[in-house]
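Handout, page 2. Input:
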Amino acid sequence: MKKERIKALITLLDDPNEEVFSSVENELLKERVDIVPELEEAWENSLDNLFQERIETIIHNIQLQDIFIELKKWLKTDHSNLLQGVYLVCKYQYPELQLSNITDVLSDLKKEIWLQLNEHLTSLEKVRVINHILFDNHKYSRNTNRFLAPENNFISEVLTTRKGNPISLSIIYSLLCNQLGMPVFGVNLPKNFILAFMDESGIVEEGEIVDTSSVMFYINPINKGAVLGRKEIEYFIKQQKLEPKEEYFLPCDNPVIIRRLFNNLVNAYENKGDENKKKEIMHLLTLFKNYEQPK
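Output:
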């Protein structure tokens, strides 16, 4: 749509006729997020409350629509990129967020860890280095006081506050490990979320895991990176009265991780009584309804 036509449509947003407004709104919602600056400029130049409210609603709906489109694209073509997936989750709450806001913090952490690593360290020794920097030096920890807060699922926020939940802390941990060349991946364990440090010989093409014998050990970031064996996971599953499944011991793929973040957000907004945000997240979750983790 030409810029002049967009501006002309925006000027009609204060029309008291609901049919006119609805028609204008539908036309603007056909556009991508690129038109948001035009809408924001119009908002700033107006003192009309109705006009401003309508613009705010349209901007939000365009941004939500854009996330839906980008997530759909990610699922089809780019789901091997976990960082892009978690970035799109963050953009739901922080639409102006830049990817660099996340990558810059991760880069600093990666550099700090890298300076203390060397080729002679064992896998366990490398994990101890990461644990020391993340949990002792930078004080990353469980957000005990606000465990159900939505912010715990937005990685950009967790990197700022250093408070999160099992899955957000695990994502940060695994992203750092992967950037440092360590095969550490998320395990979708119910009522927790942990990591598996893999033997590279057990990983075949496209990251597919052969079997649980490829897991060297597990890491629990919510407990300061405690190292666990299979028996500890089995005990946890029994303690939680869960039906044992092989998937609780193997890395999951990235769409499973993003789906779990969104499920957490549904619960978080329900807990806050925010039905609008809950419905919006459930709309994004429809993209995952036909998704099944490869066997």
